[in-house]
Write a structure and sequence with these properties.
alpha/beta; four-stranded parallel beta sheet; about 15% strand
Length: about 280
């Protein structure tokens, strides 16, 4: 019922090529609800024109090349923000990294056109952490989103960023610098209210949910400041400007100075982000 008035701006099924929107897994419905629910639940930015690309199967897995195709489709259909509540690494991926063009390549091309790409840092925090945020949020200009608990502390499952450079297990040839240290920002990732595919409501944990809060914040920012949207002459310069605003407006953790490998530059503060844009 919270989607009863929702009209999608576009839909593409890369998995089963079905013409009508559906969700055979549930994750997409839950994430979309955080953004555009308009009923008992209220989305962060429910006035957006929503494009939905289905690139993962009923078990939540898929091919990274297909994710790249979905990103390309969003670009060709005029997206200003691409929200990716997915990710991983070759040894833990829920989808396969092939030898061809991947979601990182597609994300970087979108950013070069002035489109904001937001992606989950990943949920392998703790003793099983692989040492870096997930792909494609590991790409330099993609906005990587970690997670916090209900009390605002770092959520234990949120992936940690490696910002020092390394060779193994995945090469990071140079140390990451501001405003691109990973993750860049954190947002709610514990007991987040979501919609379920059977029409009900529930709670979800994970950096996927945190990602949508940042997507919603950017949507409100672009609504308030249309000049920040991608256009025919868009470039990554505007994306970098907004990343600096995210960094400067974030609320740091207790005793935090500078960037933290789990907490990023701090917790998302939507009002401060909007004020930052107004004063810049």
């Amino acid at each position: 019922s919270d989607f009863s008035e929702l009209q999608l701006a576009g839909w593409k099924d890369f998995v089963n090529d079905r013409a009508d929107p559906y969700d055979d897994h549930g994750h997409g419905t839950s994430m979309a609800g955080i953004l555009v629910a308009n009923g008992w639940m209220k989305g962060v930015a429910n006035d957006v024109d929503l494009l939905v690309a289905k690139a993962l199967g009923s078990d939540g897995s898929g091919d990274d090349g297909m994710v790249a195709e979905a990103i390309d489709w969003c670009v060709s259909n005029g997206a200003h923000i691409i929200s990716l509540s997915l990710g991983g690494a070759p040894d833990v991926l829920p989808f396969n990294l092939g030898s061809g063009r991947n979601s990182g390549d597609a994300s970087n091309e979108a950013i070069d056109a002035g489109i904001y790409v937001v992606a989950a840092a990943g949920n392998d925090g703790g003793p099983d952490d692989d040492g870096d945020v997930a792909h494609p949020s590991s790409e330099q200009q993609v906005i990587s989103v970690g997670g916090v608990t209900l009390s605002g502390t770092s959520w234990s499952g949120s992936s940690e960023g490696d910002n020092n450079g390394r060779i193994l297990p995945l090469p990071i040839l140079l140390p990451r610098g501001d405003p691109n240290q990973k993750p860049e920002i954190v947002a709610p990732a514990q007991a987040v209210p979501v919609l379920t595919k059977d029409g009900g409501w529930g709670l979800a944990d994970g950096t996927s949910a945190a990602t949508v809060y940042v997507t919603g914040a950017l949507a409100l920012l672009l609504q308030q400041n249309p000049e920040l949207r991608a256009n025919e002459t868009g470039s990554s310069d505007t994306v970098n400007t907004v990343k600096n605003w995210l960094m400067e407006s974030a609320v740091p953790g207790e005793d935090q100075t500078g960037h933290d490998d789990k907490y990023g530059y701090g917790m998302l503060n939507i009002q401060a982000l909007l004020a930052q844009a107004e004063s810049s």
